[in-house]
Every structure is written in C-alpha cells, then in structure tokens.
Amino acid sequence: MIDIQTLRRDAAQVESRLKTRGFVFDRAGYEALEARRKALQTRAEALQAQRNALSKQIGQAKGKGEDASALLAEVNVVTQEQAGIPAELESVQASLDALLASLPNLPHESVPVGRSEADNVEVRRWGTPATFDFAVKDHLDVGEPLGLDAAAGAKLSGARFTVMRGGVARLHRALAQFMLDMHTTRHGYTECYTPYLVNASALFGTGQLPKFEEDLFRVQKLGDQGPAAGTEAGQEASGQAVPATMYLIPTSEVSLTNLVAGEILPGEALPLRLTAHTPCFRSEAGSYGRDTRGMIRQHQFDKVEIVRIDRPEHSYTSLEEMVTYVRSLVEALELPWRILRLCGGDLSFTSALTFDFEVFSAVQKRWLEVSSVSNFESYQANRLRCRYRDAEQGVQLVHTLNGSALALPRIVAALLENNQTPEGIRIPEALRPYTGFDFIPRPTKK
Fold it and tell me: DSSP state, 182?
C-alpha cells in the first residue's frame, strides 16, 4: 500500500506515476476526503480547546459564587457537536483506507512506459532453440504416452487439472528437489513448510485482496468442526479460532511474506531469505480461451518460491542477485531463455519493478513465462506493518521481494518439448542425480 504520507506530500506526483502503468487515480476524490479529514480533526481540536476554556471559566465563576448556567449551556452545545465528530471522522478515514487499498504500487523510474505485454522490453537472451529432424509434438502429445494425463485430471477435478505418472511425475518431483537444494545449500535460503490455506488478512497483506478475490479459491467451513471451530477448547489448543472463510494460496509468496507481518525485525537480521515448495491455486478468472491446452495455465500447479525481506537501500542489489540466480537455474536446465523488463501496463498490482523469465518452446515457436522476479519496495510491508530497527534511523519499513524459482509445470512442458527425441525425453545433466535416470523412454507398441 502506498504510504499515506507520500500522497499527502505530493498527490499530483502520485497521479503522474500511476498514469505510467495505465491507472487513473481519482485525485480530486482523494483531496476532497483528505480536506474533510483535516477539517474534522481541526474542528475536534478547536471544540476540545473551547470546552477546556469553558470548564476553566465555570470553575472560576463557581469559585466566586457567580451564576455559571450560561457557561454550562454553552458546554452542552459544544459537547453535542463533539459527539457527532468521531463517527463522521471514522467514516471518512474508512473511505481513505479503502481508496489507499485500491491503489497499485508506484512503478520504479526504470519501468518502461507501455500498455500491455507487447510493450515489455527484452533485456537479454541466452541459448539456441532446439532443432529437430523428425516430426515433433507439443508437451501434451509427447507426454501423454509417458504419464502426462490431462483426461484423468479432468475426470477427478475438471478442466485445467493434470495427473502425472511414472517418469513424468518423477521429473516433476526432481525439479522441485533440485531447486530447493540450489536455494538452501548454495544461496542461503531457509526452507519453509507453510499452510496452503490462509486467512483474508494474509492476502490483504501481499495485495491479492480486496482487488483480486475473483482469482482466488475460497474455502467456506461448513457445520461444527469440533474444538478447532472456535470453542474455548479449540482456542486453548491452537491459540486462535479457525476462520469460517479461508483461501487457498495462489503462491507461497503469500505465506512466506506474511511470516514477518506485524514484526519489528532487528536490522542486523536482514536480508531474510526464505523459500518454499507448495502447490498454487488460481481460478484464472478472465483468462478463458488462453493457453487452455496442456499445462501452461492450470488451476493447480506447483512452484518453488524465493522471498527476500531487506533494507530499502539494499533491495535493488538483492533484485539483481535474484535475477542472476534465476538465470543460473534456467541455464542449468539447458533451456534457452530471455529476460523481459515489464512495462507499466503489464506490472502486477503490487510490483514496483519486475523481470520476467521466459523459455523458448521450439515446438510451439513461442516464449513461455517460467519466472517473475519483483521488488515491491515498501508496498507490501506497509500493508503488513513489517518494519526493522535501524541503529541510526530508528524503525523503518522493510522492502519485500519475491521470485518464482521456478514454476514447475511450464518447466516440465519446456523440457518435454525441447528435449524430445524419437526414442523419448532426454533429462538435463543437472537433474539426473534427482531423477535417477537420464532418459524417459517412449513405451514400445505391443
């Protein structure tokens, strides 16, 4: 969330910066609310000062034996006016809070101006797309005889769910373990296991709520669930009642970043580096008709996420380190990649600067996004109320960053497509210690 002090200092500058990402800020509406808030607070202070002065006069009059009835009547009028101010001030403040929650993050000065993904700027690319001397298939066709089963996923859950079996399932698991090992043993990330269900406040903290509720899967608790449902026994056992409504995480960014919600961290503990492998759940509202075939856009998919909590002055150095690190992961998997700096119109709601990684599908002849690495600056921290204590500057908001490292189904798809041979799928050397094999053979026809 944008700091209210930023708006109060220069609402015109905020309006201008938000325009670069195609967002129209109702500055007049904000300024009217802010003027009313100031007027109410000023009036409240004036009335309290008037009441204090009248009380003093009443005391003096009574001390002299004089009639204080007129002063008491005046105090009554002031008290009645005072009584109406808190409710109106609360209403105005609620409107200001709702307006703030609706504003996206301010883009970094290096973000290109643009309206859509067509305006993103390529920063760098690496590798040579695979070539084939035989008829190639996309990942669904080449993977189906190897254990990739979209029909079974649809049978169990509906469209955009997939079952994996055999070598493909093991490849999927190997990718997750490879990434976690890279994160923890080589780059100092702490592996975490976090809940897949979170409350609404967690999603507000990272920016999914209230704006993007339609993209989430919501779970409503039905009936009496025993002590965990909020009885005294349940609260004693868990420390907190289970909310009646919870949400499946769209990414472990939500749970990892919320681990520091409400905290004041010691400055010397930063940066925090956290990672988790979790399933992710997305309704993909508004994306119908796009990438519906195969594993490119699923309602449930796995991802290994990396999150950093950092000092503001170091966060862009951390962003560069994370981009370099994700590059090394994709290169280790021997996949041609490119990096895009996202334009204002393609930035996520919470991001100040994002780099997307895409791998090339030699079969589909297009680039597939497999990672986004973003700096949110203090936007999430302000919603989360996460701060750190600096020896010289006192308590300050942290900066938060995150990266997909990596989205598993699209990597599986890219490996199946780019590494296919007439005999089966070649496994990249870096993954072979995790799969236990270097090849997924095509089944022989009987």
Answer: I
Q: Which H or E element spans position 391?
A: none
Supply the DSSP string of 5-31, one letter for each residue: HHHHH-HHHHHHHHHTTT----HHHHH
Cα dihedral sign for 112, 113, 114, 115? Answer: positive
Residue 15 · residue 396 · CB < 8 Å: no
Instruction: Answer for the pair 412, 295: CB distance below 8 angstroms, yes or no.
Output: yes
Long-range contacts of 18-21 (CB under 8 A, 24+ apart): 18/103, 18/104, 18/106, 20/107, 20/111, 20/113, 20/344, 21/104, 21/107, 21/111, 21/344, 21/345, 21/347
pLDDT digits (tens, 9 = 90+) for 38-97: 999 999 999 999 999 999 999 999 999 999 999 999 999 999 999 999 999 999 999 999
The residue count of the chain comes to 446
- With 90 as the cut, is the pLDDT of residue 238 above it? no
Q: Which residues of 233-267 are buried (b: 16+ CB within 10 A; e: fewer)?
A: ebeeeeeeebeeebbbbbbbbbbbbbbbbeeebeb
pLDDT digits (tens, 9 = 90+) for 284-301: 865 555 566 788 889 999
Query: Distance of CA 133 to CAs 53, 138, 145, 147, 306, Å?
Result: 94, 15, 21, 24, 39
Decide: 335 and 357 in contact? Cβ < 8 Å: no
d(CA 102, CA 300): 27
Compute the distance between CA of residue 415 and CA of residue 55 in angstroms, rounded to an integer. 80
C-alpha to C-alpha distance for 306 and 303, rounded to whole angstroms: 10
Give the whole-angstrom CA distance, residue 353 versus residue 374. Answer: 6
* pLDDT tens digits, 108-143: 999 999 999 999 999 999 999 989 999 999 999 999
pTM to 2 decimal places: 0.90
d(CA 133, CA 422): 10
SS3 424: strand
- Residues pairing with 164 in the sheet: 148
| 3-state SS assignment for residue 77 | helix
Return contacts of 95-100, CB within 8 angstroms, 24+ apart.
95/33, 96/4, 96/30, 96/33, 96/34, 96/37, 99/26, 99/29, 99/30, 99/33, 100/1, 100/2, 100/4, 100/7
Type of residue at 405: A
Beta bridge partners, 198, equal 247
What is the spatial distance between Cα 303 and Cα 278, in angstroms, rounded to a whole number?
Answer: 6
